Amino acid sequence: MVTILTLETALKRNQLRPRSVPDAIVIQSHKQIQANRQKLKNIFGSNYVEVDNDFDLAHINSAVYKKINKLKKPKYSKQMAKDWVDMELEMKKQAGQKKSSVFGLFGRR
């Protein structure tokens, strides 16, 4: 997951920090991040998520929560992955684990 914000916002937030860095460093870092966005999209494909970090915190948290929940329920295309998830769910059922356990991340296909 990559958080995206405008250069103006990055510079403003840097100045608000108790320990800010020179503007040149913020500008250089921002350019590097922007240049890497497409590379990351190519690497992670549909699992790549950008979060627009220019909005208020409540809006960001809501957007991130929705995107994470969408990623938690992948559509498995390979039979081996489907079989593994089914086996883990069956083991969870036999152990009497609640939905909130670590295996709760794996939903039904």
Written account of the structure:
With about 110 residues, the protein is mainly alpha-helical. The chain folds into two domains: about 1-70, no CATH class; about 75-109, no CATH class. The protein has four helices and two strands, in the order βααβαα. It is elongated, with a radius of gyration of 20 Å. The model has no long low-confidence stretch (mean pLDDT about 80).
DSSP helical segment count: 4
* Amino- and carboxy-terminal Cα gap: 24 Å
Instruction: State the order of secondary-structure elements, H for helix, E for strand.
Output: EHHEHH
Shape: elongated
State which percent range the strand residues make up: 5-15%
Count of distinct structural domains: 2
Widest sheet, order of strands = 1-2
Average of the residue pLDDT scores: 78
What radius of gyration results from the CA coordinates? 20 Å
Q: Report helical residue fraction.
A: 55-70%
How would you summarize this macromolecular structure in one to three sentences?
The chain is mainly alpha-helical and 109 residues long.
Topology:
Blueprint (H helix, E strand, L loop, with lengths): L1 E3 L2 H10 L6 H22 L5 E3 L4 H16 L6 H17 L14
Helix pairs in contact: 1-2
